[in-house]
Amino acid sequence: xxxxxxxxxxxxxxxxxxxxxxxxxxxxxxxxxxxxxxxxxxxxxxxxxxxxxxxxxxxxxxxxxxxxxxxxxxxxxxxxxxxxxxxxxxxxxxxxxxxxxxxxxxxxxxxxxxxxxxxxxxxxxxxxxxxxxxxxxxxxxxxxxxxxxxxxxxxxxxxxxxxxxxxxxxxxxxxxxxxxxxxxxxxxxxxxxxxxxxxxxxxxxxxxxxxxxxxxxxxxxxxxxxxxxxxxxxxxxxxxxxxxxxxxxxxxxxxxxxxxxxxxxxxxxxxxxxxxxxxxxxxxxxxxxxxxxxxxxxxxxxxxxxxxx
Amino acid sequence: xxxxxxxxxxxxxxxxxxxxxxxxxxxxxxxxxxxxxxxxxxxxxxxxxxxxxxxxxxxxxxxxxxxxxxxxxxxxxxxxxxxxxxxxxxxxxxxxxxxxxxxxxxxxxxxxxxxxxxxxxxxxxxxxxxxxxxxxxxxxxxxxxxxxxxxxxxxxxxxxxxxxxxxxxxxxxxxxxxxxxxxxxxxxxxxxxxxxxxxxxxxxxxxxxxxxxxxxxxxxxxxxxxxxxxxxxxxxxxxxxxxxxxxxxxxxxxxxxxxxxxxxxxxxxxxxxxxxxxxxxxxxxxxxxxxxxxxxxxxxxxxxxxxxxxxxxxxxxxxxxxxxxxxxxxxxxxxxxxxxxxxxxxxxxxxxxxxxxxxxxxxxxxxxxxxxxxxxxxxxxxxxxxxxxxxxxxxxxxxxxxxxxxxxxxxxxxxxxxxxxxxxxxxxxxxxxxxxxxxxxxxxxxxxxxxxxxxxxxxxxxxxxxxxxxxxxxxxxxxxxxxxxxxxxxxxxxxxxxxxxxxxxxxxxxxxxxxxxxxxxxxxxxxxxxxxxxxxxxxxxxxx
Lengths: 309, 544
Prior knowledge:
heterodimer, A: mainly alpha, MetI-like fold, flat, B: 2 domains, 7-stranded mixed β-sheet, 4-stranded mixed β-sheet, 19 strands
């Protein structure tokens, strides 16, 4: 187990370097010069441009720029933004708390409600409850999140006035609840469907018959035996989804005006702030890597037959 | 054991949900806003909030609230009026003596003196300070020493030789050449004075800028919000009529509009395009739609032999007459653009140099005459023309399609004009500044100050900084020079108008439309208006 984890952690290094390299090169390959764009429609000032490039190290060959960037990252320095002159770490630090809150809420919502819905549907497979849950999830999958977002915003925010249409204070968990539900809607539907299929299938398996035969209550048979065995595909999905929820919130963050990572990366892409994009993406890569390691370790917890050497 | 863990998870999760559900009710309390404070939409400023480092409207909004310079543009007429200036005197339009009013203070309590100006201008001009709007100081003698134009040169001086402090309230300015309207440019934020704190602890100043304007910054959370409060010791005449302003960053102006409708926000200064058709119905009088100091044009690559021949001017005029401006501005822009009839902007006013209809028939849609002119000029080069613009912002794609269609209908040839969309703004500007255009391309101009000079000289003077068409006319240059050395404003404006008439004949660019500024406000506030730069005049807003 320990060796397995160590090996996985070591594998992260090439993935990390490779991914940052690709993103760095992609940002560099985009047409247009981010420094010239500072002047907008006006002709840039050549002396000023040369001066700024020198200061930011953008006049160096691209490989050297990447090398400097990598060295910086290992020292905890993610570079500074071109236009605003803020350290990228500050930008990420400002945006991260809101995103984390939103993600945690959305994730909890997805997991709790999704699994509950899936379990109910799976146990009553083919019945009316099942059909209606399938219908609702199909609806959630097919409605794009911006439609849902604007609907919720207009109805609850403007018509009913239950909430403020936008998030006023991203440190207030209550205000983030509705955006989190909108964000979670799609994953929730997937989780419910995955759980349902898994549960419906395992319900008829031998170990369930054994469990019932030895006199276990329905509750214990389902809660301990059935659910645990049905969780493997769901856990895999939830793991990947955690990353998606964090990065994929651009639309939801925009609609509800949450100052988060999605918004920061969108802005940075528009203004071609390479160092910010690479910094945020690097951070997301680390999140994905750690989560996928955790998911793999969870398999062994759920199914003792799986062992890691 | 595991079952227990799972159970505790479930309990924890339910608790979180329950907690959030209860705190949800409390969220509504913040909707009212504090008494007397205007809640307004904002965007993240692109650059640090230094006066000479701001060239976009969001940063400009803040500077307009926390700084006052020598002059201020009257929010209604656009005229430059003395603000901190007691007098600005000259006998030769080149050497100016500036006297400032006593009694002004920065919000940290220090007095505003002549050196506050001279130091600030020297800072703004110096190459090493990397200020985006340095070019504002280019008319001052010694600018070339602190900010050489050559790419690899280093500054040979620390300060500009044209600036000298005489006493606490007087300083002199020497320009490199006569420029009669120069005092009128001084209302721009780049010319603001700076306190000692700016130079002594720059980082602290940037975190919370200090100025001499009607507001001072209370708190500033980057990329989220800024709270400004009334500066009680403000010495100017335009004291704030409210207790303060809370600027909130919105990335999506649709969200800001929704917040305004829900009574959650008081002022927005950019009504989203998708709501324009409803805005008037939704808001009635609370929707503002008025001309801004922005003109949209289409330029021609005069460096391309195909467009530089003398006859090509007729083709350019013909193309101008083939575009149905009325139709496009009403159908695509819902009248938030006004068809252009000269090369300036209505915000200048008649005295300032705007002249409706100066462009005459050449800016009027007339298919018959358009066809005739294009034919006389030898037809389109190669039988067709492209129209290029970036398409990542604005609704450029839509109007380009419409303009091309209009031209094609006039010429009765579906392939005469084609749209060449460039994905990003940065890429598009790169192509323009590298002189790679072969057909028509979009150019727009947002004025720096409401002066006719600013709409003509930087755009059409030989080798001027934003002369994207690479237009060069000795006649135009001569008239501009004459205007700049004219002894009074009226004469200068008349000369500039003459220069503008040269443009109509040569048509290096087609004036399309004047852009309007839009704004909307809630029932909680009144007296909302936009200044010539389309920024709300926050000091005048009253909160009920």
